[in-house]
Amino acid sequence: MDFPFLYVEVANAPIVKGRSGISKSNQPYTIPDKQTAALFFGGQFPHPVEIPVPEGKSPYQPGLYLLTGAKLVRPGANGPEINLRDAELVSFEVASEALSKAKPNLKAA
Predict the structure, then answer these.
(1) What is the model's pTM?
(2) Does 108 reside within a domain?
(3) Is residue 107 part of a domain?
């Protein structure tokens, strides 16, 4: 599939366990559990990524998901960067249903 938007395919693979502890600067830290996925962004080949498992929720089921979230894209030193740590995944089915019910909110410039 080739779509003109960002999406991921979550693999049917074991969860990569996260960890927590105390840093060298004596600060607590938490690295969440992650799932193996492939990020598709319009190139010929997908980019392998790890998607954090949502805190307090079940892991994503294997399949295709749209990337969304208020903090998905952030400014970077060389242009916009994709922030997978704060990304939210929405299944194609849920996104399609929501979009079919959405009313355009376009205003003339």
Answers:
(1) 0.72
(2) no
(3) no
